Amino acid sequence: MYGWAGCRDWLHEELRRIAGVAAEDGLLYLAGLEKTVGGWQVACLESVLFAPEEDCAGSIAEKTAVLLARSGWEDVPVVLAMPPEAVYLEEMQLPALPTRELGQTAHWEMAAREPFGGAPLFTSYARQEQGGYAVAAVAVGEAEACRRAFAAAGLQLLATAAPPASFCLLVETDRLCWEETVLPLVPTLLEADGAFHGWDERFSRAIYGAGILVQALPTPGLAFPFAPVRLRGLDLRRIAGLAVAAAAAVLLLVTSADIYRLYAARREARQLQAEVALSRAETNRMEDFRAEEAWIARRDDALRSLSAASHPAAAVLSFLGTRNVAGVCLTELSLEPRQSLQIKGEAVTYDALADYLAGFEAQAGEGGSGAALTGSTRRSDGGIDFTIEIPFADPAEEPAGDVREGEEAAHASME
Hints:
The protein is an alpha+beta fold. It has helices at residues 3-11, 56-71, 99-113, 140-152, 203-213, 236-309, 311-322, 350-365, 400-414; strands at residues 12-14, 17-24, 27-36, 39-49, 78-81, 88-92, 121-127, 133-139, 157-161, 170-172, 175-178, 181-184, 223-225, 232-234, 328-336, 340-347, 372-378, 384-391.
């Protein structure tokens, strides 16, 4: 079965196995019923010698646990057929009432008779063929003692039963029959010829209570469940497992979404970091360009200021740029605005120094500024440190042509 119907069936827990137990004539009989697609069938028939001890319920429970373990039916619920001496049975005429009210009426009628000296009792009824009802009762205390004994043995006792003396299943080849009811036998119980030959009618008492409880036999019957028996109900373990799986799936989806968002955020962060790095490089290049542009502007301003304020200085600088004398090296230039230009340097010999000064004298003869040696010192290594001072004339006294020529020379020298 698939789809919603299959899911619904999967979420429901169905009672598919039940065992009946009866003690009689020094033997303990165990019968197991199993539900298949075609209905209930007899799947287990076991018997063992049984000698009841003082604690009869405890002995039955222990022997039942052994038989169930031997048959591989350890977790199967059990219905116990009470011994005839523990059951009070009486035929009654009851009014025609709905099932629930009929059961209450039977209980009140039986309680009024006080079969167990007024002790609390369980009652049940069954319709008889000749009319009327068979009403049975068992003492609550004795039934509860049986349930406690089975619980101590690790078994679940669902109900007790009072099989009527007239109930007897008959074997027909591969099935058990009673009136119109048919209970097939599983193939493992059959002989090679396909028939069952080991039938004992006392198994009927063991089958009765289990068959009544799961409605494999006609109901109502003389069974005394301790609580309402649900043959089909929600499987809480499967529902809990499904809830856990659903919660895990939701958590996985949320975690996956968070992981994806984290991945997207990190990828976006990497892109932003790359853009910031590129922008920072562009900014650095722009700052370098602006710094270079500012330096060029300052240089141009300095050249214009120098050309406008000290025209002779421009001509001197132009001359210094073209005057090279072997053995003479300039180390420092000091400009006193509108006064003089001081030149410091080193010469190998005085002859080289004289040749250098001769150039200034030649320039002075052509109308340029003269130069004066203001100091010279011979060092220990033989070299000469010298200082030359070139006075500037007032710009107002210079012809305009000389000024322009000086500016052009200065610009050409700077370039």
